[in-house]
Design brief:
This protein is of the alpha/beta class and about 190 residues long. Helix content is about 40%, strand content about 25%.
């Protein structure tokens, strides 16, 4: 199987990693394809099955775990699983493309450990935890309890930043987008 590069973007919710990944997907010089994660939760807002996530039942997710179909997976919150199906990576590599991930911190680090030479692991750092909370509230997609859970998790995730290859500080979005583009361009051209 032709193995391309793996580009991981991880960060606490609300840091801007999805915005950065969408920007990079629009850059033809990078030859990227988005890795669609599987999730055992229901879609939020405008999310679509097969585009944003593969939304599967908790029971089906557990069957995939048992069958070792995942490259990585995690129970992010109780009965709320996310993971990367091996078949998704094979699909993208079969297209001759590099894989880009918008993935949680633990999953991103697992991919980096499994494919250390092929992976660029980027941590997107927000300006502050207060700014994260503001961004999450602005989305209006989750309850106050869910937002507070995400903020509590963010503190733990921020501590993992030094384990990544690169930290992009998303204090000024246009600067972060340009930095991400140059980083990925340099990595995929090696």
């Amino acid at each position: 199987m032709n193995k391309g590069k793996l580009i991981v973007f991880s960060a606490p919710s609300g840091s801007g990693k999805t915005t950065i990944v969408k920007h990079l997907l629009g850059k033809e010089d990078l030859n990227l394809e988005f890795s669609i994660s599987a999730a055992s939760r229901d879609p939020r807002g405008e999310e679509e099955h097969g585009k944003d996530y593969y939304f599967i039942s908790l029971e089906e997710f557990k069957k995939h775990i048992k069958a070792e179909d995942f490259l990585e997976w995690e129970e992010v919150y109780r009965d709320n699983f996310y993971g990367t199906l091996k078949s998704e990576i094979e699909r993208i590599w079969a297209l001759g493309k590099n894989v880009i991930f918008d993935i949680d911190v633990a999953g991103g680090l697992r991919i980096k450990h499994k494919f250390p030479e092929q992976t660029l692991a980027v941590f997107v750092k927000p300006p502050s935890v207060d700014e994260l909370k503001r961004r999450l509230k602005e989305r209006s997609t989750e309850s106050e309890d869910k937002i507070n859970m995400r903020i509590a998790k963010a503190s733990v995730e921020l501590a993992t930043a030094p384990q990544f290859d690169v930290i992009i500080k998303n204090y000024d979005l246009p600067v972060a987008l340009e930095e991400a583009h140059q980083l990925v361009k340099d990595f995929v051209s090696k």
